[in-house]
Amino acid sequence: MSAKVLTRVKTWISVSGLTEGARLPAERDLCATLGTSRAELRKALLVLEVEGLLARQVGRGTFLAKPPEVKRSGSMTSTIADLAERTGPNEAMIARIALEPELARMAALSATPRQLRDLRSLSDRMRHAQTWHDYEEQDAAFHDLVAEASGNSLLHELHKIMNGVRLVVVWRRLSTPMQGPTPDYRSFDEHDAIVTALENRAGPAAHRAMLSHLEGTLSKMRANNTDR
Q: Same domain, yes or no, for 137 and 170?
């Protein structure tokens, strides 16, 4: 995906007259309007969702969370698009392993009760995802919330960029299944372990749980040629 597609989508939103909370047209209609493929459109929408401009509600559609700012050179959108063109799934996972366990350790001390409740809710909801798209969005929200709960705004922003790149890389896959994860999918218990450690305010345990989760994902990815 190029920065041009992201810019095209963002520009259309800016001039569309949509107000905060308005629902975007169906993907099929947007593709026709913007002259892009559905795969490319989805990548762009996912990046804008990571940025907080859009909000997806399962079964209802995609909504404008806040009006986009005028595009600036060096914006997060451009940064994500540029990095995604130069990053593979393995590289993205190595970056996550370097950052996210420490964020989890920090979150054990800094997470608010509401954040802990939301993390537990996301972990539960992932078990009932009907499609991989739904699962991946909830998984991304889970890891972003851990980063936010770390209480370090700079590291959270760095994580947003890393997570945005990861999501775009995921969308490049041509073999993504439609049906969601099976009930025995290993990440379910791993997410639960992370939340439990955070709820117990156990920083080292949260670090270990996140590290184990990400290293398991990397090992599985390398074995099965998958980036989940």
A: yes
Retrieve residue 210's tokens: 């996140």
Between the CA of residue 62 and those of 6, 9, 94, 137, 176, what are the distances in Å? 16, 13, 31, 12, 21
Which residues, listed in sequence order, are joined to residue 62 by a DSSP beta bridge? 56
80 belongs to a structural domain:
no
pLDDT tens for each residue of 75-133: 676 777 778 778 888 898 999 999 999 999 999 999 999 999 999 999 999 999 988 87
Residue 179 is part of a domain; what is its CATH number?
1.20.120.530
Q: Give every CB contact of residue 152 below 8 A, 6+ residues apart in sequence.
A: 103, 106
Q: Do the strands 61-64 and 54-57 form a parallel or antiparallel pair, or are they unpaired?
A: antiparallel
At position 100, the amino acid (one-letter code) is: E
Residue 128 sits in the same domain as residue 205: yes
3-state secondary structure of 170: helix
Residues 57 and 97 placed together within one structural domain of the fold: no
Dig out the tokens for 86 from the structure: 């130069």
Q: Read off the pLDDT of residues 125-170 as tens digits, 9 standing for 90 and up.
A: 999 998 887 888 889 899 999 999 999 999 999 999 998 888 777 6
**Residue 207 is part of which domain span?**
88-224
Residue 175 CB contacts under 8 Å (≥ 6 apart), including other chains: none
- Rounded Cα distance, 172 and 84, in Å: 10
